[in-house]
Amino acid sequence: MADALFLAISVLTIGSAIAALEMRSLVYGSIALMGTLGGVAGFYVMLDSPFVAMFQLAVYVGSIAVLILFTVMLVKRELIFKKIEDPKRKFAGIGLMLIVILALGAVIMDSGIKTISTDSEPVDFREIGGDFLTYYWPALILMALILAGSVMGALVLARREDTIENEQ
Amino acid sequence: MSVIAPKFRLGYFLKGIFDNAFWILTIVTLAGIPAIQIVLFYLELPVIDGELLTAFLAFTWLFNPTMQVPLIKALIYSDLFRIVAFPGFGFAALIAAGTIFVERKMLAKLQLRVGPFYCGKVEGILQLAGDGLKLISKEIIIPAKADKPLFWAAPVLFVGTAAAFVALIPVAPGGWVVADLDVGLLAVFAVIGFFPIITILSAWSANSKFPFIGGIRALHQMVSFEIPLILSLLGVVILTGTLNLSEIVESQSSFPWIIFMPIGAIVFFTTMLAELERIPFDLPEAESEIVAGWLTEFSGMMYGLVQLGSYLKLYAFAALFVIIFLGGWTGPVFWPPLETEIITEGIPIPNYAGDPILTVNAPGLPLLDQDPNEWVLQQQGELQYTSGQLLVSGVIWFVLKTVGVIFFILLPRGVFPRIRLDMLLHIGWYKLIGLSFVNIFIALGLVYAGVIGPGGIL
């Protein structure tokens, strides 16, 4: 059962990733990207971490995919994208992907993880939250500062001088 | 007045019926029965009481009066019943249908109109059935330059997502919920995140100006109001320390959270109106500006499906408000226990004079109690309430509270005008997010002051 599910999710994830790259229509490409992100959420569920899976769905499928769709629909794509049909680039990309996969596989095989125990308890998300607030609090503060800085930078960049102030 | 079928003849009608019957019999004999036998060959049949449950035995039990109550009970406690009927789709669709009718009638009363009146003699009670028949029998028109796969998929996906939202809502104590997740509230947020995608895809796929404008408006509105929606519920999560919706309800057995978090409740209610595209936030469907917004190109049952989905969503949001702020199914248990004689001896059946002449013994009779021994424990004083009592009382309290919240969702439609898009975004990004942070700080203050929460006074 678990193997069939794993296989199905893998086919969904990788197939829709390939589709996201190869589709002619940008909207269908972004729908396929949603399929990939949802498949990753399925992997998280299979790995007994529904907390991360739900955040994957809420953040990546719910927000980032919407942002991509929004951009695709509002932008005239002829102005930005030029079609470059070069088979060499494609083969180079496939070769690069194979090298990366082989390297990662070699690292994992070398690391001594040969067997996986499937009946271990799922990690409680309360423990994760407690760890974040006690042991890893400097990292949490640092991340919050970085996010706040990037939001402020975006606001400064998006600010326009000629906006009419509050005409309610 | 036009005639419904001008060339109607009884002979043609009978011929049609006989033709259909002939073909159905032929196809069932040639294909259906072999298919059933093939499926039965591969099924692993269960063994009950040392007997293999074959199809013959199942039919025997189905028509045996002493086995019928246990059979119905087994059906009620099966997963299929939960998904299709009671806490799942059927229950929610029933409430959604009632909501549509009450909305039309109540709005008419508020505006000194009559509302649906002729259909079904008494106050237009059959108007909803008539509308449903009309929608089903109408032609589905698809715009010539529409993106057909997406256009077809959008209503179905909308109803499916709304049903997934409904599936997360617990209705009664004892696990009456389709999917009892440990991270239920996060799952709710994840499901809510799917609605803007479906809206914008359907709006884009219609390839028409009005739907696209409506879809962009819906996207602005939903994405910007999701943030205060999530933040306004975090206060309750901080106080209860759990994300499971059933546990959130059980934490409110003595008082509902709206007493301590009125600001969070107000923010959640406002964002709920915006997520549901109700007046005063119905810019995506503004009928006086952009025809019907992102629903413009839908026709026939596709429109009906989108409406069903949006009313299912309304029920689910109202139920979520009840679960998180109003205490869900908590309330006094008022359902009386079953009389002892009915269970031990049977149901007495009197004659015309009122003297009992025979008793009918029906095994497994407390139909809603999961375990028939519960009433014995209750008689001995070891159990306060049986699960059947809790179920009935809980469902009644839950439905009463949910209907109240739905009433308050419907009410602004008769009262308020529609607001502008920039005012809407201003409310969402400046005021509601600020208020929801105030709510979170109230919750943190209550926890650190030692009033509520782990080790608190209350």
Q: How would you classify the helix and strand content of chain B by structural class? A: mainly alpha
**Highest-level CATH class of the largest domain in chain A:** Mainly Alpha
CATH homologous superfamily classification of the largest domain in chain A = NADH-ubiquinone/plastoquinone oxidoreductase chain 6, subunit NuoJ
Assess the beta-strand content of chain A as a share of residues: under 5%
Element-by-element helix/strand order of chain B: HEEHHHHHHHHHHHHHEEHHH
**Which range best describes the helical content of chain B: under 10%, 10-25%, 25-40%, 40-55%, 55-70% or over 70%?**
55-70%
Any idea what the radius of gyration of chain B is? 27 Å
What structural class do the secondary elements of chain A suggest?
mainly alpha
Provide a descriptive summary of the structure in words:
- The complex is a heterodimer of chains A (168) and B (458).
- With 168 residues, chain A is an all-alpha fold.
- Chain A has seven helices and no strands.
- Chain A has helices at residues 2-22, 26-46, 50-74, 77-80, 87-110, 125-134, 137-158.
- In chain A, helix 1 runs antiparallel to helix 2 (26-46).
- Chain A starts with a helix and ends in a 10-residue tail after the last helix.
- Chain B has 458 residues and is mostly helical.
- The mean pLDDT of chain B is 84.
- The interface between A and B is medium-sized, with 20 and 24 residues.
TL;DR of this structure?
Chain A has 168 residues and is an all-alpha fold. In chain A, 76% of the residues lie in helices and 0% in strands.
